[in-house]
Amino acid sequence: MRLLAINFGGLGDEVLFLPTLKSVRQAHPDWEITLLVEPRSKAIAQLSKTIDKIICFDIKKQPLLPADYIELIQLLRQGKYDAVLSSGSSSKVSALLFLSGIKTRVGYDSGAMSHFLLSKAVKLNKEQYAAYMYHDLVRGLGIDLSPSSPQIDLDQKALDSMCRFLDQERKKVQAKERRLVLIHPGSSKLALQKGIYKTWSNNNWAELLKRLLAMDLEVLLCGGPDDDDCIKSIVEKLEAEPGKHQGHFINAYGKTSSIQDLVALMQVSDLVVCVDSAPMHIAAALQKRIVAIFGPTDPKKLLLESDRAVALRETPEGGTYANSLESEPCVQIPLDIVYQTVLDQLNRVSVQESSLEFHRN
Hints:
Elements: E1 2-6, H1 11-27, E2 32-37, E3 53-56, H2 66-78, E4 83-86, H3 91-99, E5 104-108, H4 112-117, E6 120-122, H5 130-135, H6 156-172, E7 180-184, H7 189-193, H8 202-214, E8 218-221, H9 228-239, E9 248-251, H10 259-267, E10 271-275, H11 278-285, E11 290-294, E12 309-313, E13 320-321, E14 330-331, H12 335-348, H13 355-360
Parallel strand pairs: 1-2, 1-4, 2-3, 4-5, 5-6, 7-8, 7-10, 8-9, 10-11, 11-12
Antiparallel strand pairs: 13-14
Helix pairs in contact: 1-11, 6-10, 8-9
C-alpha cells in the first residue's frame, strides 16, 4: 500500500505534521509513506524515520501557470499511490486530489464539492494545536488513534560532531563547562515578505546575550540561511564591548552543515530562546525548555505551553514598532520580561536534565 501525504508549508509545519504520519505508521507499519513538500522543507526527511520518500513541488512559485498545475497532477499520478492525504484547506485541493486518479482521497471538508470529490472529507478545526488539527485527517483513513506531540529522531553522528565543535570552541579560550543557552533569533524571509513580523530587535537580542554572559553562562548563537544580517548585527554589538563578559560566547552561525547539527546543539542545551519559527518546533519536539517570542500568531495553536515551554506574545495594543536602528518592524516585548522569563526557566532546570550532566555522561 502506497500513501502520499501532502503538506505544503515551512519546516515548522512539517514538524507539526509528524504526529499524523506517526499514527499512519503505527496503524499500518507495512505502508510506504511518501511526503510531498515545498523545496524549502525537504530537510524534514532528516528528522524522521517515519518518512520513506520525499518529493517536492514549489507551490509558492509566482505566478503558478496552467502548465505548473499539469506538472503537479503528473507528479501525483506517476507514483501510482493507493491513497492520498492532504492538509490543504482550499476548495481547490479536492479537485486536485480527484484529478490525481488516486483511489482513496482524504482531505478537509471545504464545502459540497469536497464531499463529492473526496473519499472522506474531514471536518477542519483550526481552533486547536496545529499538530492535532493535522492529525484529525487520519480519521479519514479509518485510523482511531489519539495524537501525540511531535517527535524527531536524533542523528548520533551529528551529535558527536557538534559535541566536538563545542569542545574545540571551549579549548580555544580554556573555557569551563557552564549551563548552555541556545539563542536562535531568526525568522524566515517568506514571513517577512508576507508582512508577518515575528522578529525581536537585534538590539534586544544583543542585550539579552550580554546579560546572560554576565551571569557566567555559556551562550550559543545559531541561525539559518536567512539570518545572515541578523546574526552579523548581533555579533557586532557584542564585539563592541570586548572583555566585559564573564561567560563564554560561541557563534555557531555557519558551523552547522545540516538541520541535524542544529538538532544536536539543541539537544545538549539547557534552554532554547527563539521566535515563532521552525527551530521552536524542533526544540519542542526534543522536549527542551523553551522561551519563544511570538508576534501576531496565537501561541496556543503552535506551541503546547507548559512549565517547559513558555510563549511570550506582544499585547494586541502594543502592535509592532519600527526601531530606529532596525530595517524591519519588530515584535514589541520588553527586554526585561524576556530576560526574567529566561531566568525563571533556567532556575527550573533539574540536575538530571542539565547540559553539564549530559557531558559528564
